[in-house]
Structures are given as C-alpha cells and as structure tokens.
C-alpha cells in the first residue's frame, strides 16, 4: 500500500524489529525484522521487510543510522482500546463489589459521581485515570464522565494534554430518583449535552471527540432518549450506553417500555442504534437482538471483569462473533476492578473457559482472538478503525513497545524467544513494567513528558 513516490512524506521515526498485530483476515500476524516508518503527522508511512532498508531510506529520505532497533525480547503491538470505562468511578476502583448492579449504582456510584461537580476533585481523579490507563497501554479510551458538563470537558482536556485518544461522554439521566443531588431535568440534560458537544468540538483537540451518552434506558425518559438520538444524528456523533447487563434491569426496562419488543428495540426506536454506537455488556441479548446490532452496525463492549464482579452475567462472545457484530473489550471501571486492558484480555479468556466448563462443546476463544478484540476489534467497535487498531500504512501509529524481559518486571524468561510465545506470556503475565513506551498518533506519551504534581 505504500506509495514509494511520496515526496511530501517526511519521516519522523523509523523502528526495526518484531511487530505483532491483527488484520481482518488473521487474528495474529507476526512480522519479524520489519521496518516501520512514522511520518511527521504521526501516521504509518511504510511497514516493510528489514532487507528493504536501503531502498526505503532513499525513497523516504531518512538515514539508516537513525533507525531505532528493538532489543531481543521486545516487540511492538497496537495500542489497547478500552471501549467502556467510567472515569469518575476510578475514585473507588478495587472496592465496593459486594452487591448487584442496581443496588451498587444507588449505594456507591451515584453518591460518588455527584462529587464531580467539584472541578478540583474531578481534576485530581481524571488526571489519575488518564495516566493510569495510558501507562497500562490504553491508547484509546471511550469514557463515561458524569452529568456535570464542566467536569466532563475537563476530562477531555486532560486526555488531550496527556495525548490519549478519547471519546468522552457527559452522562445523561433524567429519570433517577434515588439520589438527591445527582439528577437532571430533561431540559438540563438536553441543553447541557448540546453545550458539552459544542464546547468540546470548539477546542479542536485532535484526538478527543464527544460521545452522546444516555446512561441507560432505565434512567432516561423516552423523550430524552429520542432527543439524544436526534442530537447524535444531527452532529454525526458517537453514541454509548448500557444494554442487557443483568436480568433485573432487562425486566425493569420491559416494564418501562412495554411498547418495545426488546431492550435493543428501545434504543432502535429512539435512533440510538447506529454504526457509531457502542453498547456495554449485552450479556442477555437474544439472537434477534444481535441481528439488529448487525443490521445497524452498532457494536458491543464486552466487560468481563465487571460482569463477574457484580455477578451480572456472562457474554457468549462466540455467539456475538457468529452474528458478525462488531465487538471490543472494556474495563468498565469500577464495576470492573482493574483499569488495565490486560486484565480485560484475561477475564475474557476466563469467561470463555467457564462457558466451556458448562458446555464442553463450546468453542473456547484463544488468546490470538482475544488479542484482536483488545486492539483491532476495539477500534472497529468505536468506528475508529480508519485511524487506529493495527499497523496499516495510513493509520496513526498507536503502539506499545513491549519488553517481555523488562528488568524488575513480572516475567521470568527461561528459554523461549519465539514472538508468539512472548506475546502470550505478556498477555497472561505482563503489566505496565513491560510496557516501556506508549505511542499515540506517533507521539511518545509514556514515559510521561512533563513532570506532574500528581
Ligand atoms: N456496570 C455499570 N452499569 C451501568 N448501568 C448504568 N450505569 C452503569 C454503570 O455505571 N456501571
Ligand atoms: Zn458501564
């Protein structure tokens, strides 16, 4: 795909070594002794065999001495895509996992989220979550914020400042009577959503976009759902929400929307199911509902840690893939107790194995497939696969430089050197100590550039 006569392409960096990524055709493509060039716009200019160094250096006008060579136990992989994370809930991550969803929301989540009216508090928590996720290799995050517009704008600013690619949603909910100080009227929700979108777009952050965010059907009136569908359509925006997470919320949604045939039908009727929609969970979707997802191009975010931690359910990923529904992985902090997408990979494999224990005929997911879900799959689920997700010429260079044998790290290598084994070990055993550098759109964002006060 590289155009070798591209005189205007200026190369900023060239890397040589092992590159591991997924494509539409193959879950795992391993390229050894490969050369990847990043242009001054942060895009991948070429990815070719190492033996082509001389020709590439002449064509693209760089010196072979400027090439960065990876070490023996290092490889590049695409950045991880977290398709569903609640930034404010980072404040109580790792705690409060002792009750089912609706009780959990009322007891812990809403009282905590109500504090994000305080911008100082919001700044402190949002800086921490952006830094923590970046350090753990999340180059793209799809965030829920809270109902507070200014704090949600602040989250966008912080993601931009640290260089994370982000979709940011001001949460909308006009049907929540459980918490005194954490609700909005229909008019507020609509007006503040419009203000949030206008102000965020006005900032012209290159990697941060607003996402229309009805919390879920249970906490929104039909009027608000319809209005948000219109706002998303008029502005061609992403949409995110929750669907079919627990048996209990499905039952209540059925009671609230008796004219709808299913939970999916509620969103469909309000123009909230588009090819830029990502819905979290979907543990209990019927095959008919999956067909609606497929037809509209809407996607699912699989959040296995949360599904287990809140005893919500288990998504049959194989069935979702069989229906050709776009699928990514999410941490769903703080229903999920880890902000790391490596944990989402492991919990996805665990859940698939539990389904296999229940039914030995089950077609268990393998680590290669889950690697694809965490990278390319996530970018497809967020309709960002034109920009990110794998190492294709023309896409942004969103990448992790992984050193499986990082000194002081969690992995002891005994004898294996094969890249596929190195990847498997990293996915199962690795952590941020193995992620030595993180790049988003060609910019090195980890280690952090500026000293911070956090
Ligand atoms: N897991 C989870 N499910 C939800 N459904 C509505 N809000 C939430 C939330 O914050 N977390
Ligand atoms: Zn969620």
From TrEMBL:
Catalytic activity: guanine + H2O + H(+) = xanthine + NH4(+)
E.C. number: 3.5.4.3
Top enzyme category: hydrolase
GO BP field: guanine catabolic process
Associated pathway: Purine metabolism; guanine degradation; xanthine from guanine: step 1/1
A Pfam family this chain is assigned to: Amidohydro_1
GO annotation, cellular component aspect: cytosol
Molecular function (Gene Ontology), one example: guanine deaminase activity
Every Amidohydrolase-related domain range: 76-445
Classification via SUPFAM superfamilies: Composite domain of metallo-dependent hydrolases (SSF51338), Metallo-dependent hydrolases (SSF51556)
Cofactor(s) it depends on: Zn(2+)
Keywords: Hydrolase, Metal-binding, Phosphoprotein, Zinc
Binding note for cofactor: Binds 1 zinc ion per subunit.
Assembly notes: Homodimer.
UniProt function note: Catalyzes the hydrolytic deamination of guanine, producing xanthine and ammonia.
NCBIfam families, sorted: guan_deamin
Family: Belongs to the metallo-dependent hydrolases superfamily. ATZ/TRZ family.
Protein name: Guanine deaminase
């Amino acid at each position: 795909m590289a155009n070798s006569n591209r005189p205007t392409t200026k190369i900023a960096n060239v890397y040589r070594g092992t590159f591991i990524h997924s494509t539409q055709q193959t879950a795992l493509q391993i390229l050894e002794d490969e050369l990847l060039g990043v242009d001054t716009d942060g895009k991948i200019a070429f990815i070719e065999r190492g033996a082509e160094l001389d020709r590439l250096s002449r064509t693209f006008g760089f010196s072979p001495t400027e090439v960065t060579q990876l070490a023996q136990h290092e490889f590049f992989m695409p950045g991880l895509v977290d398709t569903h994370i609640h930034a404010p809930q980072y404040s109580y991550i790792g705690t409060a996992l002792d009750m089912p969803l609706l009780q959990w929301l009322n007891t812990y989540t809403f009282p905590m989220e109500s504090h994000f009216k305080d911008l100082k508090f919001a700044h402190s928590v949002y800086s921490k979550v952006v830094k923590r996720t970046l350090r753990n290799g999340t180059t793209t995050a799809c965030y829920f914020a809270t109902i507070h517009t200014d704090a949600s704008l602040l989250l966008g600013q912080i993601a931009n400042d640290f260089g994370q690619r982000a979709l940011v949603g001001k949460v909308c909910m006009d049907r929540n009577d459980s918490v005194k100080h954490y609700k909005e009227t229909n008019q507020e929700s609509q007006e503040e959503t419009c203000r949030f979108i206008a102000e965020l777009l006005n900032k012209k952050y290159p990697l941060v976009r607003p996402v229309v965010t009805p919390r879920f059907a249970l906490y929104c009136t039909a009027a608000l759902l319809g209005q948000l569908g219109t706002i998303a359509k008029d502005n061609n925006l992403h949409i995110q929400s929750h669907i079919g997470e627990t048996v209990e919320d499905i039952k209540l949604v059925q009671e609230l929307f008796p004219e709808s045939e299913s939970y999916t039908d509620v969103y469909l009727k309000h123009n909230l199911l588009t090819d830029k929609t990502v819905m979290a969970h979907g543990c209990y979707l019927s095959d008919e509902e999956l067909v609606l997802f497929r037809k509209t191009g809407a996607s699912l975010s699989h959040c296995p840690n949360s599904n287990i931690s809140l005893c919500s359910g288990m998504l049959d990923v194989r069935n979702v893939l069989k229906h050709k529904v776009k699928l990514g992985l999410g941490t769903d902090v703080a229903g999920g107790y880890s902000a790391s997408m490596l944990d989402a990979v492991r919990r996805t494999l665990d859940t698939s194995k539990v389904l296999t224990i229940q039914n030995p005929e089950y077609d268990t997911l393998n680590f290669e497939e889950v690697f694809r879900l965490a990278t390319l799959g996530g970018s497809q689920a967020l309709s960002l696969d034109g920009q990110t997700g794998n190492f294709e010429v023309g896409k942004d260079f969103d990448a992790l430089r992984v050193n499986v044998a990082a000194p002081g790290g969690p992995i002891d290598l005994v004898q294996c050197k094969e890249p596929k084994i190195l990847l498997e070990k990293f996915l199962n055993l690795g952590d941020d100590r193995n992620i030595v550098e993180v790049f988003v759109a060609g910019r090195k964002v980890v280690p952090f550039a500026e000293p911070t006060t956090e």
